[in-house]
Amino acid sequence: MATIKRFEDIETWQKARVLANEIHVIAVSTELAKDYRLKDQSNSSAGSTMDNIAEGFERGGKLEFINYLSIAKGSAGEVKSQLYRLSDRKYISKEKFDELYKMADEIANMLGGWMNYLNKSNIKGTKFKNRTA
Questions:
Q1: How many CB atoms lie within 10 A of CB 67?
Q2: For the chain, what percentages of helix, strand and coil (3-state, to nearest 5) are there?
Q3: Which of 14, 34, 56, 105 is the most buried (most CB within 10 A)?
Q4: Average pLDDT in the 16-41 region?
Q5: Measured between alpha carbons, how far is 12 from 25 in angstroms, rounded to an integer?
Q6: From CA 55, how far away is CA 58, in angstroms rounded?
Q7: What is the DSSP letter of 13?
Q8: For the chain, which domains are there?
Q9: What is the mean pLDDT of residues 73-80?
């Protein structure tokens, strides 16, 4: 696995960014704009997915990163649930639901894969790289 130096280079973060932007476009261009609570929740959970990947990475420790990846995975699950509400309230089409659900599910699966990989690896993270004790 290549060493990643910036969170912006993480493919999962990039996909989460696309998802967050897609949710934002729906929030400002459909009737969802008037459903303030759901609009805010949808934007927040989609943004939380990408933000927690970035925050965990920047903390520089393996265990902290795993914890933040877990939070990001939970946020991706929240997005999937909210997509059902967007669909049920006719803010998005079935096709848009399927597209975004697939994207959120892929992100969640990628996050799970990262967590499994990190749990099995000897990587310490930059925070602990030079510690001897």
A1: 16
A2: 80, 0, 20
A3: 56
A4: 97
A5: 20
A6: 5
A7: H
A8: 10-120 (1.20.1440.60)
A9: 98
